[in-house]
Amino acid sequence: MLLFVIGTRPELIKVAPLILELKRRNSESFILVNTGQHKQLLEKYWKAFGIEPDYNLEVILSNQDLSSLTTRAIDQLNNLIKRIVVERGKPNFIISQGDTTTVLAASMVAFYHKIPFAHIEAGLRSFDLMQPYPEEFNRRVASIGAAAHFAPTSIARENLLKENIPNEKIFVVGNSGIDALQIISRSSELENLVFTDARLNEALKAQSSKIVLITCHRRENHENNLLNIISAIAAIAVKRKDCLFVWPIHPNPNVKQVVLSSVLASMSNVILTDPLDYTETIKILSRSFKVITDSGGLQEEAPSFKLPVLILRERTERPEAVDAGYSILVGSDTEKIIENFEHFNPVFSEDFKNPYGDGMTSKRIIDHLIELSDKQNVE
Q: What is the pLDDT of residues 12-36, one digit of tens each?
């Protein structure tokens, strides 16, 4: 039995293809647990992929700090695992994806229950515990006790080997986020999609502006750094009337209140909108001209549409597109963002392939998990 633990929007997006792969194989030997770390943001996503969790936890409290979130996640997962072991038996693996507090908690609970932990998207490293914070810490801790490391790229594999992770525990499989993108891109729902925000429907229909997709949510980009980013976008928007800047605003009040009260709210070629669901995001991405983001997921997805990315970070644990010259690190430096928006225009070759995945990652991971589980059962 495979027990998947997710809690945030990126985790659901990247684990959904694995659940769909198991369903395609008519497997019923899996459990999907949602910690609810991004409860509000997840509601639309279950429907997009046609899946739902078997168990929902409630780890979030108002005005919660990271310590409280972590202890609640560990406590609730611990109680649930004990219940599942009694009712359904001990899982072969507890599986989590990425680097959130949910992943940290799942890896620790798996270790304490002596259940093998499988880490999806293993080996990503920025080599700075404070960037991104706390994600770099979370994923390093998750790696310590993992029995299986599903690395998205050869660079991620090398990072794990340098940390003395045994080679036989590392599997280079690609990134399942590209599987998710391809699933949604093939759906009729994407073609017939109507945005909740009517301004986006009008923008896509008019086709008169170059769309620039902007997202910004990481803790490193709060306060003064966010103000610097807003200043850069405003300056670019004044100069580039041929562009339409679409900024789906993260619900975190440290971001939302600042952006909505800024000069951007009154600019005619800037659309500040509520968070988009995954299908809406892919629709906008497929029609975009450039991307400005601090999101890891968009760094991975944008190359599928041959889009240049300005990364609002000083470091990235996804260096492949940067190394290839298709993305660039600009941080929160106002002048650097403005300059690179104008001058960073990489040319994508006809045969360019996304360095992060080919759409077959979920199949590879499930194949490995089944093989490893069968070995456990024999032993």
A: 999 999 999 999 999 889 999 999 9
For this structure, is 189 an active site residue? Answer: no
- Domain range summary for the chain, segments of one domain joined by +: 2-174+358-378, 196-343
Tell me the CATH architecture of domain 196-343: 3-Layer(aba) Sandwich (3.40)
Query: 341-351: buried (b, 16+ CB within 10 Å) or exposed (e) per residue?
Result: beebeeeeeee
Query: Is 217 annotated in the active site?
Result: yes
Is residue 219 part of the annotated active site? The answer reads yes
Catalytic choice (38, 217, 313, 364): 217
Q: Tell me if 339 sits within 8 A of 115, measured CB to CB.
A: no
Of the residues 218, 219, 313, 364, only one is catalytic, namely 219
Q: Check residue 282 and give its pLDDT.
A: 95
- Indicate which residue of 21, 38, 72, 121 is catalytic: 121
Whole-number mean pLDDT of the chain? 95
Superfamily of domain 2-174+358-378: Glycogen Phosphorylase B; (3.40.50.2000)
Q: Is position 250 annotated as part of the catalytic site?
A: yes
Q: How confident is the model at residue 230 (pLDDT cuts 50, 70, 90)?
A: very high
Which whole-number Å values give the CA distances from 156 to 149, 161, 360, in the listed order? 10, 9, 18
Angstrom distances, CA of residue 340 to CA of 79, 296, 328, 329, 368:
50, 19, 8, 9, 42
* Cα–Cα distance list, 221 to 65, 79, 90, 127, 327 (Å): 17, 35, 41, 18, 19
3 state SS for 183-201? HHHCCHHHHCCCCCCHHHH
Q: Is the pLDDT of residue 311 over 80?
A: yes
196-343 has the same fold as 2-174+358-378: yes
Catalytic residue from among 38, 157, 250, 364:
250
Point out the catalytic residue in the list 21, 38, 72, 99.
99
